[in-house]
């Protein structure tokens, strides 16, 4: 199916709800039945029929169909956060005594899940440089059950070769999970390269308006059914129907938002790479990126996330730069209409995060939907204040 068909029409059986153009919000926790047998049948198929909204909700069901089709998988689940989706996917694959391989410096809560929470229950994890497939092969142990990928990863945007890692994992009967939040299903489909489970933070591009928190898990129907019957239903990390409807709304404009974000990003990138007060810019589709060819192979050009390194390690100067920006809001997350900045200097004095391995002169920028000249001029005046 074409992307526009999936986004606009798939799963929307409008004749079932008065031919409404926009799908309804089924704001109901409970669903009733005419007979005991009908109730029995729906309970046995709660995976795909309304019974109780902790399991299946019709509004969420429409979203599930679209997300699975966009990710080229058989089915999907939608969670209350990206970390909930990641946790359910990982916990479904491992048990006490198992070993996990994970790329270094993943999303902070993925790191906490693997190295702190699951470690308490006898699951061990080896963190590796994922830019070389040989590192994955060298880290495999007899009890390795899972490889966790994040490509590009959260802050420094290293890529992993999805096809090569998947081939290696399948030869050893190891499950693979990939966090695809950076790229969205429009720009990268890990399932096409043999990855077993794809996860997303739907708080980012998929919703696109910075007004909700949600997560997505896409996989085979069998795997999704198993996760739903266990981690999803037991832990209860469900999304509400209103939030699901907001994501449906966000998906309508995803292609045009991504197009504008990329166009803006390339203009900002060109400015930053030439500026004398910028030490380095990290962006997958920069021709200076050592993994540029791999990015072209497995991704379509996309994304507004880039990381800059200021040519100073003076915290006061770094903070002066960040505090001087007028159109890059100081905020975490990304993927909405507004441009953002996340200075790593924020974490250097924070007790709520693990000690960061990143230097203080590192700042993650998200390029939003504002006019690119406005953003460039804003960066220019802030850089001029670094004496």
Q: In words, what does this structure look like?
A:
The protein has 15 helices and twelve strands. The protein is of the alpha/beta class and 387 residues long. It has two domains: 3-252, Aspartate Aminotransferase, domain 2, CATH 3.40.640; 254-383, Aspartate Aminotransferase, domain 1 (Alpha-Beta Complex). The strands form two sheets. It has a seven-stranded mixed β-sheet, with helices on both faces. It has a five-stranded mixed β-sheet with strand order 8-9-12-11-10. Helix 3 (58-70) runs parallel beside helix 10 (241-252) and helix 11 packs parallel to helix 15. It is globular and about 75 Å long. The model has no long low-confidence stretch (mean pLDDT 95).
Relevant terms:
single chain; about 375 residues; alpha/beta; Aspartate Aminotransferase, domain 2; Aspartate Aminotransferase, domain 1; 2 domains; 5-stranded mixed sheet; 15 helices; about 15% strand; globular
């Amino acid at each position: 199916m074409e992307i526009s068909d999936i986004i606009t029409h798939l799963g929307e059986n409008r004749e079932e709800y008065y031919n409404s153009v926009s799908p309804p919000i089924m704001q109901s926790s409970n669903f009733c039945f005419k007979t005991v047998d009908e109730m029995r049948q729906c309970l046995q198929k709660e995976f795909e029929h309304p019974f109780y909204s902790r399991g299946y909700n019709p509004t969420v069901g429409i979203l599930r169909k679209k997300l699975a089709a966009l990710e080229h998988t058989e089915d999907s689940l939608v969670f209350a956060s990206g970390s909930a989706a990641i946790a359910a996917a990982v916990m479904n694959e491992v048990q006490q005594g198992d070993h996990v391989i994970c790329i270094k410096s993943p999303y902070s809560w993925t790191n906490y899940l693997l190295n702190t929470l699951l470690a308490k229950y006898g699951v061990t994890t080896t963190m590796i440089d994922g830019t070389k497939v040989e590192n994955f092969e060298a880290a495999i142990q007899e009890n390795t059950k899972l490889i966790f990928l994040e490509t590009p990863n959260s802050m420094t945007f290293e890529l992993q070769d999805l096809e090569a890692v998947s081939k290696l994992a399948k030869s050893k009967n190891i499950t693979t999970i990939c966090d695809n939040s950076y790229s969205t299903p429009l720009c990268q489909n890990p399932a096409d390269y043999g990855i077993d489970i794809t996860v997303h933070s739907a708080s980012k591009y998929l919703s696109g308006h910075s007004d909700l928190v949600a997560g997505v898990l896409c996989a085979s129907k069998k795997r999704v059914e198993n996760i739903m019957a266990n981690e999803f239903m037991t832990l209860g990390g469900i999304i509400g129907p209103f939030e699901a409807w907001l994501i449906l709304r966000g998906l309508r404009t995803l292609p045009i938002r991504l197009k504008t974000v990329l166009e803006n990003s390339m203009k900002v990138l060109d400015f930053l790479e030439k500026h004398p007060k910028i030490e380095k810019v990290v962006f997958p589709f920069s021709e200076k990126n050592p993994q540029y060819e791999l990015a072209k192979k497995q991704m379509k050009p996309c994304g507004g996330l880039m990381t800059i390194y200021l040519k100073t390690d003076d915290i006061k100067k770094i903070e002066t730069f960040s505090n001087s920006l007028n159109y890059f809001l100081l905020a975490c997350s990304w993927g909405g209409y507004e441009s953002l900045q996340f200075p790593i200097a924020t974490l250097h004095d924070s007790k709520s995060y693990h000690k960061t391995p990143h230097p203080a002169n590192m700042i993650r920028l998200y390029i939003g939907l504002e006019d690119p000249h406005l953003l460039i001029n804003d960066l220019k005046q802030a850089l001029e204040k670094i004496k």
